[in-house]
Design goal:
By secondary structure, the chain is mainly beta. 9% of the residues lie in helices and 37% in strands. It has 2 domains: 93 residues, Immunoglobulin-like (Sandwich), CATH 2.60.40; 170 residues, Cyclophilin, CATH 2.40.100.10. The strands form 4 sheets. Strands 12-13-16-15-17-10-9-20-11-14 form a 10-stranded antiparallel sheet. Strands 1-3-6-5 form a 4-stranded antiparallel sheet, with no helix packed on it. A hairpin with a 5-residue loop joins strand 7 and strand 8. The chain is elongated and about 90 Å long. The N terminus is likely disordered.
Length: 311
């Protein structure tokens, strides 16, 4: 008797059909009566302003902080603030300029002169929300010099940030810190230079003074085409090119020997005395005494009594 081969029948298993109530289906999909989540508010802007603290509206001072104020709604949801002429834009969070949902404060360091613009965009979709124009004048510094009992007067230096940005920024940092106030011009050479910015008054020819502590040395900017002409201002340095810190000199003549050439490095000019050249002439004629650390130390001292960025 033949046996039938074993066979396996594959049949679908009959399972009872489970009907879920509608409420259960909604719950599994995240519903359950809560509805869709509320949309995230979008930032809107009603006005934007930019100005250096203490300056007129829409005016910036080179190398100083620019305050940008943005007014609107939901500004805590993300906005982007940008300006090509201002570096390091930062949202402020501390009083008295703590940013809120209706007023946001930003600051940055003014790094270019001329007509500039601040733009505000929404971060989530990059939609342009607002802009503000501001202007930055070529910077100037006003210096007051005394010869002891009386004041010789003021002279104004117009700086060169476009061609000597590192040197200009360095000089203005010393100006803002008050470093130069109370320093004496320690070197006067007839028909050549008058030099200062290193020693606190009073100084004498008999004793070598101590240099004031300074910031780090800067890169020599002697290749921008600025020449050591009469009444220009340049940085003093050692024989090492990148060694200038705080000391500067005013050229009393056209000193071509101090300019860069194919074989030697020069001295970095970064400004020109554009007002008060009579004060510089008086400094050039001041009595002085030879010393071991200087060809001629002005006595009585020519002392800087004020030095301020006035533009």
């Amino acid at each position: 008797m033949k046996q039938k081969p074993n066979s396996l029948s594959l049949r679908p298993l009959a399972l009872p059909f489970l009907v879920l109530p509608l409420s259960a289906l909604l719950t599994s999909c995240g519903g359950g009566g809560g509805g869709s989540p509320a949309p995230t508010p979008l930032a809107t802007v009603s006005s934007t302003t930019a100005a250096t603290a203490g300056a007129a509206a829409a005016t910036g001072l080179f190398s100083q902080r620019l305050l940008i104020t943005v007014n609107g709604a939901d500004l805590d949801q993300g906005i982007t603030v940008a300006s090509a002429g201002c570096s390091g834009i930062t949202r402020l969070t501390a009083a008295p300029t703590a940013s809120t949902a209706t007023t946001a404060f930003y600051d940055c360091n003014v790094s270019a002169v001329g007509a500039q613009t601040v733009s505000v965009a929404r971060s989530v979709d990059n939609a342009s929300l607002s802009s503000a124009a501001y202007t930055v004048a070529v910077p100037q510094v006003t210096v007051t010099v005394s010869n002891g009992a009386t004041s010789l007067g003021n002279f104004v230096i117009t700086l060169e940030p476009a061609r000597a940005p590192i040197t200009t920024t360095n000089f203005l940092a010393y100006i803002r810190s008050g470093f130069y106030v109370g320093t004496a011009y320690h070197r006067r050479v007839t028909g050549f230079v008058v030099q200062g910015g290193g020693y606190a008054a009073p100084i004498t020819a008999a004793t070598t003074p101590s240099l004031k502590p300074t910031g780090p040395a800067i890169v020599l900017e002697d290749g921008a085409g600025l020449l050591n002409l009469r009444y220009t201002m340049a940085m003093a340095r050692t024989s090492a090119p990148d060694s200038a810190t705080s000391q500067f000199f005013i050229n009393l003549a056209n000193n071509a020997s101090l300019d860069r050439s194919p074989t030697i490095r020069g001295y970095a000019v970064f400004g020109t005395v554009t007002s008060g050249t009579d004060v510089v002439d008086a400094m050039a004629a001041a009595p002085c005494t030879a010393a071991t650390y200087s060809e001629c130390v002005p006595v009585p001292n020519l002392t800087i009594t004020a030095a301020t960025q006035t533009r």
